[in-house]
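Lecture notes, continued. The same structure-token format from the folding unit now serves as the input rather than the output. Read the line below as a description of shape only.
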């Protein structure tokens, strides 16, 4: 019997009842704008910022319209100007080089290792090209942060972290987003908490956060923030900083607050699913699993493996055979950028030289979403299907069928 998977890879869980009730209350009030509060009412957005700062242990937090906006704002607040080079990952998603381009910056791509993290040797060779690194913890894989920080500190390079895939994750006990000058998060539907669109920016420096708040469009109402520096910090900054609106609204904040309270619990559920897949695919000939270092505390919302040094035709054959059995895999090695899988060479506005070692890895990266609507049994079934199809193609059994 050929097993078929029938779940949807893009179906997230519903918004918790408490979030729906809070959203209804906001709508009934009509006060959706974060600064539209009555009397001494505290806006949902201000409360969410306070709660997020507490969750990750940062001094300050700003909720914004998207993860991309959070990164752009961090780059601007750091002082990146038109024409400045910014180091970033060759293996990431389009909003990351896009954020650099949005401030007129020029991405300098750093390679990826077989463990799907930034190649620290390549970074070391390129550190003298820029004084800012926008590090993307792509697909939740965290590099050796102790080594990376030592390198950046020695070279005087400022770190900004893209934590779109690492909300709730940590390296060596320090939360992702707390290593850099800024940590940036997304609350877009496919991330760890879901408001359709949205994001956060965290930092510990008062002037950095004052600039970020002014940039986000605070209309001089920064006193209504809670996870924010004291008003004196804004004395000069409020005149110097342009308003580039990208605020979060109370409706999104209302549905995010209960989800944030559940984050640690959800992380356990995600990782349980991840481990079932990992176990089911262990020792599949031709398939390389991505090691998860002991110092890395991850929050899986997707699963990757490598078909390293396979020909494009054989990888495509695996994808086709899996699709036929209901399993949607994405491939970073395809000739054309498709869905979410664009590569550094697809971003032609940001010219790059070829990185053969990274190209070899990217040509083999297979990626799968792991929504919480999948049960542990679903994950076991997914592993059985992938294992069978990878094995069939690997052993050249296709023709013999
Ligand atoms: C989703 C994502 C972002 C931010 O995305 P938005 O859609 O702008 O919220 C940033 N980096 C990575 C790697 C992402 O996947």
């Amino acid at each position: 019997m050929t097993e078929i998977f029938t779940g949807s890879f893009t179906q997230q869980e519903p918004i918790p009842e408490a979030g729906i009730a809070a959203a209804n209350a906001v709508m009934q009030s009509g006060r959706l704008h974060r600064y539209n509060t009555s009397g001494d009412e505290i806006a949902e957005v201000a409360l969410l910022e306070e709660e997020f700062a507490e969750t990750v242990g940062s001094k300050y937090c700003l909720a914004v319209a998207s993860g991309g906006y959070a990164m752009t704002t961090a780059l601007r607040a750091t002082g990146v100007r038109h024409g400045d080079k910014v180091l970033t990952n060759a293996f990431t998603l389009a909003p990351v080089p896009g954020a650099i381009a949005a401030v007129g910056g020029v991405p300098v791509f750093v390679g990826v290792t077989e463990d799907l993290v930034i190649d620290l040797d390549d970074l070391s060779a390129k550190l003298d090209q820029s004084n800012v690194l926008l590090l993307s913890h792509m697909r939740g894989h965290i590099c050796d942060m102790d080594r990376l920080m030592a390198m950046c500190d020695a070279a005087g390079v400022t770190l900004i972290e893209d934590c779109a895939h690492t909300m709730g994750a940590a390296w060596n006990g320090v939360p992702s987003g707390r290593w850099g000058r800024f940590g940036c998060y997304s609350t877009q539907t496919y991330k760890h908490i879901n408001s359709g669109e949205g994001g956060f920016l965290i930092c510990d420096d008062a002037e950095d956060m004052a600039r970020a708040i002014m940039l986000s469009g605070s209309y001089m109402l920064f006193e209504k923030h809670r996870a924010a520096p004291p008003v004196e910090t804004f004395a000069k900054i409020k005149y110097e900083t342009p308003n580039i609106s990208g605020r979060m609204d109370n409706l999104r904040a209302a549905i995010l607050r209960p989800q944030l309270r559940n984050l640690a619990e959800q992380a356990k559920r995600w990782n349980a699913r991840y481990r079932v897949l990992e176990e089911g695919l262990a020792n599949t000939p031709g398939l390389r699993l991505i090691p998860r270092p002991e110092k890395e505390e991850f929050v899986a919302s997707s699963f990757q493996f490598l078909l390293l040094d396979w020909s494009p035709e054989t990888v495509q054959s695996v994808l086709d055979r899996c699709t036929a059995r209901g399993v949607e895999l994405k491939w970073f090695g395809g000739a054309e950028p498709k869905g979410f899988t664009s590569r550094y060479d697809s971003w032609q506005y940001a010219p790059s030289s070829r990185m053969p070692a990274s190209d070899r890895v990217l040509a083999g990266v297979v990626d799968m979403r792991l929504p919480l609507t999948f049960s542990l049994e679903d994950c076991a079934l997914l592993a059985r299907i992938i294992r069978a199809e990878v094995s069939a193609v690997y052993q050249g059994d296709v023709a013999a069928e």
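Point for the exam: Residues 301 and 370 are 5 Å apart (CA to CA).
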